[in-house]
Amino acid sequence: MLKEMITDQSNQQTPSYLLIKGLVRKANDQSIVGRLDDPINWSLPFSPPGWLSQRQYIQMVRNLICGEEATVQACKILQSRLGPGLCHDFLETQINDEIHHANLYHQYLDLLADDIEPSSGWHDVLEKCLNSHTTVVELILAFHILLEGEAVFLQKLIGDYISCPLFADINNKIRNDEARHVAFGRIMLPALSAQLSVSEKKKLMLWAEDIWFASARALVAEYLDPGAVQPDILDQTLRARWLQQEEILMNLGIS
Ligand SMILES: [Fe+2]
Ligand SMILES: [Fe+2]
Question: Lower Cβ count inside 10 Å, N or C end of the chain?
């Protein structure tokens, strides 16, 4: 039904169709992939933060790459499930974006002169989202709303605490692309959730909560030494952030 909603000729004037068409046009105009020259100023100072160990910093960049690569896989699965049409075209622009983002982070990682595996907890969450039973609505919720939304939030936060001018330049340049990907999720999710029953929506919210907490705990574990923060304070902090995410999902029809 979703495929028809987006691709049916008679629906080509619906708000969803027009909004996604606008995103495709913007992607072709603005995407850093579409630029002929390298958009990053690689001559900017490279200065990893002193408050993270070298290993933690490498792990953080490695986890970003892992997220970009998993999103490429999610987009390819969505393309195969939705078939040719406008969503397929948008996802093609996103695949190109994410591949380019991963390449930029790889180039940055090369400057750190070392590499390590992504954290196993984070990798496991991504694999869980990508398994063959994950539905279209779950994929869009996980990759376009939860993970992209947190990536945009974290990029702003990282900008406040990591003062490496080169890393800031990379994140600033890819932020527009990521915002476009979140916008796609925010257009698609209400249309998809409208097709779900009340119990299906409840189940979807529980699935989202499970995925969100598993990702947050896996990523936080990388940067906090055991005992650095009391477990109840960490739980309260994560719970407060989840409630913001839950509200976003409710506003998008998952309630
Ligand atoms: Fe990305
Ligand atoms: Fe993205």
Answer: N
